[in-house]
Design brief:
With 410 residues, the chain is an alpha/beta fold. The protein has three domains: 33 residues; 328 residues, Alpha-Beta Barrel (TIM Barrel); 43 residues, no CATH class. Helices cover 50% and strands 10% of the residues. Strands 1, 2, 3, 4, 5 and 6 form a six-stranded parallel beta sheet that branches. A three-stranded parallel beta sheet has the order 7-8-9. Helix 11 runs antiparallel to helix 12. Bound molecules: zinc ion (ZN). GO terms for molecular function: metallodipeptidase activity. Pfam families: Peptidase_M19. This is Membrane dipeptidase.
Length: 410
């Protein structure tokens, strides 16, 4: 009896082990075949630190960096959007100039990092560049501008950023700016959607071939953009509000409208967007306090704001959160797919800007998302759409529209 039992156990173990292995192999195969892209990380801030070498694989530590070229490769990630992020400050002409030079500095640092390591990565400016670099075995580094604040009210700046290689603009950040209302401004709406300047920015982006990123913008701004844009839009890093009630996430009504627009939502893996936080911990109270102070960042000096960011990093070390899991995140994908189908969902982690899960801490662990999708019976074709196919479809449409506009003008 015992022998039979043991033999049965061994067979079960072997079956379990081999099915685990095949899940890893299956995930690796999908990443090999598909063009995979993460549409939002804040890694450029690390590039300004001269001790940070993006060509070296960093072991993950809490509060440390989550993306570098070797970890992207390990995670089977072909492309990425590096965000040139500037925080929203009071809208004075002086502050706009400071933000502009900061955004420019971040963009220049992306070019410098890629030029220095041109055997590993290149700046990508088009869909074609992305696919070419994938074939060459190099990482494709796209540039996004997170927050339209550096544009100020100067429409010519939109084109200057296009010429600098920016391929999406997140219209605003945590507060309202001259383009539109934010989803999280402490004083609420200012324009009830897009401003009149914002109504100039959207068609300008269409004409140039810059993707419009609706992450961070208010619900009214979102619907204004959809009404005005001639091309599908993206939410570069957002989740579903029906699964996690956070103003940064999209409601079902917004998701349905996004699908009608032909656009795509790129699931974010920032804890508070994935799952409602445990509000009883000391860490949560500390975080609330820091959030409240950050809302006044627009009136802070550069030094005060830097100090706040240091406190934020320290808080993550002192009060590590019980983060949500990949399974929690994939619940958002399930919800979105059920609601609007497989063609409107992708991934934008927000690594180095707050993104990261218990079991997906950095770019090297991207395949854990793929494995969860496989467990939930998504097909290889569907997973390829999620990992990049859908986003690249939208990007292609945006490029084509701009090309046609240019031809019509000539
Ligand atoms: Zn963001």
């Amino acid at each position: 009896m015992k022998k039979v039992y043991l033999a049965g156990l061994v067979v079960t173990l072997i079956t379990v082990l081999s099915s685990c292995e095949s899940l890893d192999q299956k995930a690796a195969k999908i990443h090999n075949h598909a063009f995979t892209i993460d549409t939002h990380v804040d890694t450029p801030y690390h590039l300004l630190d001269k001790d940070f070498d993006i060509a070296v694989a960093h072991p993950f530590v809490e509060g440390g960096s989550r993306v570098d070229f070797p970890r992207m490769k390990e995670g089977g990630l072909d492309g990425i959007f590096f965000a040139a992020f500037t925080s929203q400050r009071e809208r004075t002409s002086e502050n706009i100039l400071v933000a502009r030079s900061k955004a420019d500095e971040l963009i220049d640092s992306i070019y410098a990092a890629c030029q220095k390591n041109n055997d590993l990565a290149e700046v990508a400016l088009s869909v074609e560049d992305g696919y070419r670099l994938e074939k060459e075995g190099k990482r494709a580094i796209f540039i996004g501008l997170e927050n339209g604040f550096p544009i100020g009210k100067d429409i010519l700046e939109v084109e200057r950023y296009f010429n600098k290689g920016v391929r999406y603009i997140t219209l605003c950040h945590t507060s309202n700016n001259d383009i539109c209302d934010s989803s999280t401004d402490k004083d609420g709406a200012e324009f009830n959607g897009l401003s009149s300047f914002g109504e100039e920015v959207v068609p300008k982006m269409n004409d140039l071939g810059i993707l419009i990123d609706v992450s961070h913008i208010s619900d009214s701004s979102f619907f204004d953009v959809l009404k005005l844009s001639e091309t599908p839009v993206i939410a570069s890093h957002s989740c579903a509000r029906a699964v996690c009630d956070n103003p940064r996430n999209l409601t079902d009504e917004m998701l349905v409208a996004l699908a009608e627009n032909g656009g795509v939502i790129q699931m974010c893996i920032l804890d508070d967007y994935v799952k409602a936080p445990d509000t009883t911990t000391v860490g949560y109270q500390k975080e609330l306090d820091l959030h409240a102070r950050y809302r006044n960042a627009s009136k802070m000096s550069k030094e005060e704001e830097d100090k706040l960011w240091d406190e934020w990093r320290q808080m993550q070390i002192d009060y590590p959160k019980d983060k949500p899991t990949v399974a929690d995140a994939v619940d958002h994908i399930d919800h979105i797919v059920k609601l609007i189908g497989i063609d409107h969902i992708g991934i934008g982690t927000d690594f180095d800007g707050g993104g990261g899960l218990k079991d997906c801490v950095d770019a090297s662990q991207m395949m854990n998302i793929t494995k969860e999708l496989l467990k939930r019976k998504y097909s290889e074709e569907e997973i390829a759409k999620i990992w990049g196919g859908n986003f690249m479809r939208v990007f292609t449409e945006v490029e084509e529209y701009a090309k046609n506009q240019k031809m019509a003008l000539n």
